[in-house]
Design a protein that fits this description.
Helix content is 19%, strand content 18%. The chain is an alpha+beta fold. The chain starts with 52 loop residues before the first strand and ends in a 30-residue tail after the last helix. Strands 4, 5, 6, 7, 10 and 11 form a six-stranded mixed sheet that branches. It is found in: Nucleus.
């Protein structure tokens, strides 16, 4: 048997004389239904109507006689033809129809059903076994402790952005420690319509360490102290901005506090004891920065070579704004109160602040101004 390159099998029509002479016997092509020729025993199974499957040309085929469509196997080397495409489309339509039927299942969205669903989600913690936890990628790693997750009320009123540098800033080798990097200043700049960020660091490491220590120990109501100078290091361009960061957080692991040790917060109010838990704060934006090429012909509108940072106490309006933001995680009735306000027709307005006074440091400008939004 000779098969051509197109995977076709030639038929020798010269073997059927009835095709060329109308007077010849055509019983070989058109047998009499009442006098059928004997069937070869090898083909007897083709007449079986019992449900099941049989194999034809290496593929499993339904023999039940039902109208259930057969899924055509995906043969990568076989040329796509009209028949294969039609069968594939039919199987896809059947699958989509079944999915649509499953999607039509009614879901109970009543308040009681939602409460039941929420309560059932806590069942996993009733019989929690720490030894049953397995790391998805490291078989040799085992869990040693577990923490509940709560929003961090101490940080919730602050806004945090995540900056990624293409190269380590500070002009020091990667293996040299630089304590100045975690207290740098980023100042929005503009030159000929281009927006970028000016990066400032302290001159000496001791100045950065002293600035961080004084910031942690400072009383918010204390008078203004000696300013800390930050010197211009270089300019950075914003390569990429993500306005929504749903999968990255600030996470603080807290192992609990001694009940005998009580402290006040930054505003002199009694600080509640924090239980053992992992506390999180969401990140507002994420940006990627790279070094800006130095151009002597750039015209800066307002370039500062030194920024002197001092502590400024918060005003009454700023404290009220902070308390309003903290209500999101401190007031159990916050969402109900917000719903009542919306029902009364109050319109929530969005203010584009130019500074972030929550942290008590003046001179930090909101980076949203960099992008002209």
């Amino acid at each position: 048997m000779i098969v051509d390159a197109e995977m076709g099998m030639p038929l020798d029509l010269s073997q059927f004389e009835c095709l060329w002479d109308e007077n010849m016997d055509d019983s070989a092509l058109n047998p009499d239904p009442n006098n059928l020729p004997p069937l070869d025993p090898k083909d007897q199974f083709l007449l079986d109507n019992a449900p099941g499957t049989f194999t034809s040309n290496g593929f499993s085929t339904s023999a039940s006689g039902t109208s259930t469509p057969t899924i055509v196997p995906n043969v990568t080397w076989l040329r796509k033809t009209e028949y294969l495409t039609r069968d594939s489309d039919s199987s896809m339509r059947v699958g989509s129809t079944q999915e649509a039927k499953q999607a039509e299942v009614a879901i109970d969205v009543s308040r009681f059903a939602q409460l039941q669903t929420i309560e059932s989600s806590f069942a996993a913690t009733d019989n929690f076994d720490l030894t049953s936890l397995k790391h998805p990628n490291k078989p040799g790693v085992s869990a040693v402790d577990s923490y509940e997750i709560f929003p961090d009320a101490e940080l919730w009123a602050n806004a945090y952005d995540l900056f990624r540098f293409s190269e380590r800033p500070g002009e020091r080798p990667p293996d040299v420690e630089d304590p100045r990097l975690d207290c740098a200043i980023l100042r929005p700049m503009e030159s000929d319509g281009d927006h970028f960020l000016a990066y400032y660091l302290t001159k000496e490491d001791e100045a950065a360490v002293r600035f961080k220590e004084e910031r942690l120990a400072r009383d918010p109501s204390a008078p203004e102290e000696e300013p800390t100078p930050f010197h211009f290091a270089r300019d950075y361009e914003v390569v990429k901005v993500e306005q929504e960061v749903p999968n990255e957080f600030l996470l603080m692991i807290h192992d609990g506090e001694d009940e005998d040790i009580k402290d006040d917060d930054l505003f002199g109010k009694p600080k509640p004891l924090r239980p053992k838990a992992a506390y999180y704060k969401n990140i507002e934006r994420k940006m990627v920065l790279k070094k800006k090429r130095v151009d002597q012909f750039d015209t800066y509108h307002d370039k500062w070579h030194v920024v002197k940072v001092t502590h400024v106490p918060m005003s009454k309006e700023e404290e009220d704004e902070r308390e309003e933001v903290l209500a999101e995680v401190m007031d159990p009735m916050y969402l109900l109160g917000r719903a009542d306000m919306d029902a009364e027709g109050e319109v929530e307005t969005e203010d584009h602040a130019t500074s972030r006074p929550e942290n008590g440091i003046a001179g930090f400008v909101d980076a949203v101004d960099v992008f002209g939004e």
